[in-house]
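Two proteins were folded this term; both appear here.
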Amino acid sequence: MLFQVFIIVSSLMLNCEAAPGRAPAVESFVEIEVEQKPERSLGSEVLFNLEQNSNNKKAIKSTAHAETQISAFASWNFSTIMGLMIVLGLPLLSWFLVMNHLREKAQEQSASNIEILSKYREEKEHSLNDNKKDEKRKAS
């Protein structure tokens, strides 16, 4: 029983420690470079800067918020992982202990039932032997 609990806890620890070390298959420094032509103004047209659109600002804020949420999960340390394992492990540990106690109790009851049955058989054999002896005495 103790060995099974040890295996479960050690496998949880190994899996939790390896998970933050995973990285994407393509590194972030690999990018496609696009050649940009220099901007030339002809003088009469109206120039628009489409990069500073208000919708673009909202999109940048939402991506920044998503990146902070992802980095919050990536910054788990050993104490956080151990706390999570304790929270998940305590119910399992209590369940294993209760099941072990119930199994031992059932084995004790089984042993006591076997003892009572053996005593009953001995008494029955003894009474049968006494009856046979009485019949032999009566017959002779």
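Next, the second protein.
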Amino acid sequence: MATLNLDILVINTYNKLTLGIADISTYPDSPPTTNPIIAITIPNGFGQVSLPFTQNNFNVFNSQSLGLSDPSLPLTPIPDGVYTLTYSVDPSYQNFVTKNFNRTDILQERFDEAFMKLDMMECDKAVKTQSKEDLDTIYYLIQGCIAAANECAIKESNTLYREAWRQLDYFINNNCGCTGNNYINNFKTTF
């Protein structure tokens, strides 16, 4: 007979409009659980919402189900930041599990766009190398903020997130400005 062991796992949906949480708990055969609920504390002053949670399943939430947007309007991005998830199978929260994670989907989307705009074939070698280094640094800051939240180091996680955002802003606004002219003027040979 299995014992009750509650556990949840945040699954990346690769979409700034959705939040995926899987139930990876083990449940006893009896007594049955009847009121599974998840409390999600949303960062940036949005507060906490308690929602029904489907056991042994992958649960997907969006701005409407989280109470962040009007159900009659299109979905809006779910904010980045440190979330606290508390999953319980009874309304009194006597049996529960709590996890923190730093959602970085909006930041990651900006990083992906900056990466895809970087023309690796037309910048000179020094600029290309520096741009790769800058993007690597930003990537490591993003990974650091995720790791810090996973270890409940919320202040450090938020600091790393802000620094990644700041450096990404700088990178986007001061990119190498490659137009191909440097390559054409200095390296292209005429046939």
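The longest helix spans residues 125-150. The first strand starts at residue 8 and ends at 11. These notes refer to the second protein only.
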